C-alpha cells in the first residue's frame, strides 16, 4: 500500500455504499403476486421467536414403528439431539427442544420463516420428524418395512448381505452439482468401516444393481461398473432438485431417529413474539441513532480519519447483515435473535475501537512532526498489532461458542473437540447465533476497519485541498 492514488477513496467508498444498499434492501422483482429474489436483503432475514414468534409442535413415537416395545430415556435423548442437529443444519439457530420422559414426547419450538403470512406448521415440521433411514441394498427387490421379505432362506449369506450399508456407515454428506448429468446430487463420504464394506460390495456385485433407499423410497438404483475404493459415492435421481438434495444431505448428516416420530396435530400452537415487530422497529431506530452519534464523535475528534472510519463502520454493519440474510450464496442464512443482534453490536464496538487506535496513532505521528503520508502509514503500522491482539482473542471466543453450542458434527465442534472431551455436547442455538454474528463482525472489522479504511484515507489524503495536517488531528 505504498502507492495509493486518489481514485482509491472513491472506488472503496462506492463498493461499500453498494454493499450497504443491497445488503439492506436486496434485489428482487415482482411479477403479479410472485416475488423473485435475486439477492437477499434485510427483509429476508428469519427473525427469532422472541422478535417474530413461531410455532410449537409436539412429536410422539409412531406406534406402528415400535411393535409394542418400550422407549428408554436414552432413546428420547437421542431423538432430541437429532432434531436439534436438523434445526442447526437448516440454520434455525433460535429453537427450543424439550423432552417429556413420562409422556414420551419431544416438544419443539422454532421461529416462522421470513415473509410467511400464513404459516403451515405441519409442512414446516415434516422434515424434523422424518426417520431418514438410509440403506444401500443388493438389488431392487427390497421391502424397507420388512427387510427379510425377499431373502432366500436357503442362502446363508443372504440375510447378512442383502443390506450392504446403513446410515451409521456414512461419515459426511453434502450437495454438489454434476455438470455432465446437469443435475444436483448428494455426495457421500463413508467411514473407514463403511468404505471397506462398500468396496467389498462393489467388488462382488459388478454388473449388478445396488439400490439406495431413504426410508420407504428408493432414490436410485445404479449399476456397479467397477470396484469403488475411494470411500466416496453419490446419490442422484431425476426427481432430486437442489432443495431436496439439501434436505436429504441434512437428514443423512444428522442421523436416523431411533424410532419414527409423528407430529400430534392436536397440540400444534402458534407462539406469539415476546417482543414483536414494534420492539424490532424501536431497536432499529435506536441503532441508527447510536450509529449517527458514534459518527459525530469520530468526525469531531478525528476529522478526516473519523469520516473515513464512519464509512468503514457502515461497511462492517452491512457485511454482518449480508452474512445473516443469505446475501452471500456460500454462507447460508441464519436466524437473527436478540443474542445475535448483541453479537453484531459488540463487533461494531470492536470496530470503533480499531478505528480509534489507528486515528490516535496518526495524531501522535503528526504531532511529532512527520509528514501526512508518513503519519498515515506509521499510524496503521503501529496500531495493527494492538488491533490484531484484541480481535483475535474475540475470534477465539466466538469459535469456541459456535463449537460448544452448535451441532456436534459441525466444523467448529470438530476443531475444538479435543478441548471439550470432558464435557457433554450441549446444543443451544441462541448462544451459537451470538458466536456466529460476533465472528462475522470481527472478520468484517479486519476487512473494513483495517484494509478499506486505510485505502480510503490514503486516497483522500492525496487531494491538495485535504492535505492540511489539522484535518487529521495534527497541527499546522
Describe the structure.
Strand 1 and strand 2 form a beta hairpin. The protein has 14 helices and 16 strands. Helix 1 runs antiparallel to helix 14, helix 10 packs antiparallel against helix 14 and helix 12 packs antiparallel against helix 14. The mean pLDDT is 80. 48% of the residues lie in helices and 17% in strands. The chain folds into 3 domains: 222 residues, Multidrug efflux transporter AcrB transmembrane fold, CATH 1.20.1640; 84 residues, Alpha-Beta Plaits; 123 residues, Gyrase A, domain 2. Strands 4, 5, 6, 14 and 15 form a 5-stranded antiparallel sheet that branches. The protein has 476 residues and is an alpha+beta fold.
Number of folding domains?
A: 3
Mean pLDDT: 80
Instruction: Assign the CATH class of the largest domain.
Output: Mainly Alpha
Count every beta strand, where a strand is a DSSP E run of 2 or more residues: 16
Number of helices: 14
Residue stretches low in confidence (pLDDT < 50, at least 5 long) are none
Strand content: 15-25%
Q: Spell out the helices and strands N to C.
A: HEEEHEHHEEHEHEEEHEEEHEEHHEHHHH
Helix share bin: 40-55%
Fold topology:
Blueprint lengths: L6 H19 L1 E5 L2 E6 L6 E2 L1 H4 L1 E8 L1 H4 L6 H17 L6 E5 L4 E7 L9 H5 L8 E5 L19 H4 L1 E4 L3 E9 L4 E8 L1 H13 L5 E5 L2 E4 L11 E5 L5 H13 L6 E3 L5 E3 L4 H27 L1 H22 L9 E2 L1 H30 L4 H34 L5 H6 L12 H32 L16
Parallel strand pairs: 3-16
Antiparallel strand pairs: 1-2, 4-6, 4-14, 4-15, 5-6, 7-8, 7-11, 9-10, 10-13, 11-12
Provide keyphrases for this structure.
Alpha-Beta Plaits, alpha+beta, Multidrug efflux transporter AcrB transmembrane fold, five-stranded antiparallel beta sheet
Amino acid at each position: 500500500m505504498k502507492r495509493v492514488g486518489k481514485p482509491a477513496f472513491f472506488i472503496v467508498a462506492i463498493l461499500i455504499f453498494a454493499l450497504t444498499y443491497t445488503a439492506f434492501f436486496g434485489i428482487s422483482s415482482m411479477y403479479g403476486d410472485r416475488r423473485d429474489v435475486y439477492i437477499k436483503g434485510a427483509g429476508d432475514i428469519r427473525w427469532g421467536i422472541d422478535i417474530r414468534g413461531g410455532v410449537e409442535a409436539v412429536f410422539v413415537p409412531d406406534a406402528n414403528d415400535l411393535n409394542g416395545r418400550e422407549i428408554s430415556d436414552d432413546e428420547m435423548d437421542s431423538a432430541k439431539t437429532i432434531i436439534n442437529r436438523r434445526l442447526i443444519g437448516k440454520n434455525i439457530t433460535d429453537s427450543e427442544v424439550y423432552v417429556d420422559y413420562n409422556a414420551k414426547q419431544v416438544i419443539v419450538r422454532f421461529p416462522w420463516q421470513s415473509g410467511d403470512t400464513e404459516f403451515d406448521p405441519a409442512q414446516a415440521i415434516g422434515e424434523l420428524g422424518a426417520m431418514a433411514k438410509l440403506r444401500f441394498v443388493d438389488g431392487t427387490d427390497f421391502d424397507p418395512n420388512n427387510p427379510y421379505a425377499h431373502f432366500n432362506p436357503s442362502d446363508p449369506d443372504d440375510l447378512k448381505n442383502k443390506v450392504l450399508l446403513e446410515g451409521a456407515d456414512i461419515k459426511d454428506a453434502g450437495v454438489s452439482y454434476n455438470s455432465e448429468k446437469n443435475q444436483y446430487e448428494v455426495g457421500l463420504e463413508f467411514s473407514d468401516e463403511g468404505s471397506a464394506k462398500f468396496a467389498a460390495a462393489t467388488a462382488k456385485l459388478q454388473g449388478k444393481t445396488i439400490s439406495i433407499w431413504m426410508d420407504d423410497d428408493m432414490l436410485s438404483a445404479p449399476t456397479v461398473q467397477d470396484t469403488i475404493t475411494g470411500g466416496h459415492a453419490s446419490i442422484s435421481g431425476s426427481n432430486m432438485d437442489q432443495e431436496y438434495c439439501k434436505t436429504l444431505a441434512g437428514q443423512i448428516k444428522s442421523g436416523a431417529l431411533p424410532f419414527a416420530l409423528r407430529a400430534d396435530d392436536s397440540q400444534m400452537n402458534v407462539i406469539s413474539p415476546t417482543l414483536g415487530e414494534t420492539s424490532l422497529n424501536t431497536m432499529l431506530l435506536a441503532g441508527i441513532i447510536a450509529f449517527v452519534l458514534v459518527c459525530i464523535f469520530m468526525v469531531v475528534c478525528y476529522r478526516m480519519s473519523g469520516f473515513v472510519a464512519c464509512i468503514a463502520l457502515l461497511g462492517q454493519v452491512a457485511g454482518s447483515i449480508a452474512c445473516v440474510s443469505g446475501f452471500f450464496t456460500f454462507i447460508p442464512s441464519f436466524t437473527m435473535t436478540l443474542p445475535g443482534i448483541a453479537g453484531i453490536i459488540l463487533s461494531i464496538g470492536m470496530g470503533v475501537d480499531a478505528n480509534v487506535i489507528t486515528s490516535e496513532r496518526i495524531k501522535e505521528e503528526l504531532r511529532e512532526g512527520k509528514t501526512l503520508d508518513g503519519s498515515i502509514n506509521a499510524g496503521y503500522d503501529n496500531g495493527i498489532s494492538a488491533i490484531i491482539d484484541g480481535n483475535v482473542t474475540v475470534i477465539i471466543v466466538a469459535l469456541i461458542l459456535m463449537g460448544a453450542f452448535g451441532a456436534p458434527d459441525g466444523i467448529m465442534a470438530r476443531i475444538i473437540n479435543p478441548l471439550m472431551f470432558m464435557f457433554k455436547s450441549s446444543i443451544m442455538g441462541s448462544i451459537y447465533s451470538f458466536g456466529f454474528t460476533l465472528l462475522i463482525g470481527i472478520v468484517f472489522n479486519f476487512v473494513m476497519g483495517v484494509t478499506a479504511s486505510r485505502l480510503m484515507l490514503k486516497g483522500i489524503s492525496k487531494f491538495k485541498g485535504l492535505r492540511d495536517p489539522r484535518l487529521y488531528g495534527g497541527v499546522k
